[in-house]
């Protein structure tokens, strides 16, 4: 073979290897390709000059070595591909091509095939509800209108329905609430309307709003003498560390200012101290808005060093075991037990009765298997307990499921009402420097980390958490919520409502048992009924420890006292049954709706009444009024 033939062989070989690595190694192209090509070049020199092989033999041996070396490499990548959460591969590309669209107003009221007469009645009822809100919430609407000009957050979170309906819906109703104060389990807006709060303040409200007021007052009394002096720690911080070590079962503690920062720290220290590049997350899990950990919606960056795998999947365990030498950490958000392999539920994706949430059987066993796999593979297991910490159990998911993680992240309620992020882990994984290399430093710092006021409020919370009565209150709360869910579902089934409730500890959601295009509108009737929800609507609702079992209520004796007799025909056709393809009201056909049937507002009032019956709160009197003909604004005739 001539010189030209040899160059062609070598050139082909190098191009082939380059393409192979580009396809299979994703974000590790540089490191892996460099190692392989350098090894190939070295082998070529040894075989050609040292051992006297001719050109053809040298290229053949190089190809054989590369092929044999590529087999396990290729197997691991193919297995990873099969175990990968599908949306993490497709969503970013789909988001680039899927257009945004809004249906016009005529189609808005008839997208389920309703007749012109029914559509017109819907339009009239929507206008009536809109006028009612203008009178009921004038200050809130003015406040929201001005704020939307300056804050994109509010424009984003007020878009609460399925995207195609947003344009028309925002013309009629703005669900934003401008807060004046909290009173027990209620929130009071600028117009002095009191609403029963089940939003949970994005998961922060575990203890009850009145309790956080106590924490903040105690914290301020303790910290005000220090003023704004940062950079030095005190005895309060030392006490917090001791309590957090006991709760987490870990050696060290790191303080931050948000849950997202805590996750950033945990991932950073895991990578630094294991000297491995990859992190594993599971499908649908939320770990903060940082673009280094967000593999699906909301991220313009496609993380190259994050493997997003299927949750509760044996192939995922196999990937972790086979690629343990590359994986620094596996990140788990225990909240995924409630919506496995799905993004957090919200009304904005409620196109029909497509919400599938509820406790996943076998999740505890899965966490134990995952822990065993990580231990065998030498991979750090991180629990992101920013949301679940102190909500499920005084020790979070670690206590609820009896699983010890290697690193734990906390946030939200731990601050006693103030912003906080905390990471707890063993000394070897929390190190900020390399003991053998002076220039290897892991910067994880923050100006306001360990702020005196935050530390003092946290200390008040942690002391309260350690009280025997607090531990008992968790068990009581969970029992009360389970009883409420059971009673509500029984009532809904008896009355034929296409609504069911499901819960996981104090987290609960509303399910719709019949197909329909307007299920997302139920959140607006709940607001009208005096129930405050977060921007995800009926997807995720929360109770706090402030909700207590009602022994007797002078205001509500039975849920039936809250709504009129017409509620019994709501969401049912004239034959008192359903047909496949029923719309959101449950009517098999819009024309089959009985004249004068009760509306979704009555079911909203019924749901509120059931909550009031089960738990003592200040909303009893308000809820009684709701059923006495207050809701004559019907969306469906």
TrEMBL record:
<keyword id="KW-0472">Membrane</keyword>
<dbReference type="InterPro" id="IPR015424">
    <property type="entry name" value="PyrdxlP-dep_Trfase"/>
</dbReference>
<dbReference type="InterPro" id="IPR005814">
    <property type="entry name" value="Aminotrans_3"/>
</dbReference>
<keyword id="KW-1133">Transmembrane helix</keyword>
<feature type="transmembrane region" description="Helical">
    <location>
        <begin position="12"/>
        <end position="39"/>
    </location>
</feature>
<dbReference type="InterPro" id="IPR049704">
    <property type="entry name" value="Aminotrans_3_PPA_site"/>
</dbReference>
<keyword id="KW-0812">Transmembrane</keyword>
<dbReference type="InterPro" id="IPR015422">
    <property type="entry name" value="PyrdxlP-dep_Trfase_small"/>
</dbReference>
<dbReference type="InterPro" id="IPR015421">
    <property type="entry name" value="PyrdxlP-dep_Trfase_major"/>
</dbReference>
<dbReference type="Pfam" id="PF00202">
    <property type="entry name" value="Aminotran_3"/>
</dbReference>
<dbReference type="GO" id="GO:0030170">
    <property type="term" value="F:pyridoxal phosphate binding"/>
</dbReference>
<keyword id="KW-0663">Pyridoxal phosphate</keyword>
<protein>
    <submittedName>
        <fullName>MycA protein</fullName>
    </submittedName>
</protein>
<dbReference type="GO" id="GO:0008483">
    <property type="term" value="F:transaminase activity"/>
</dbReference>
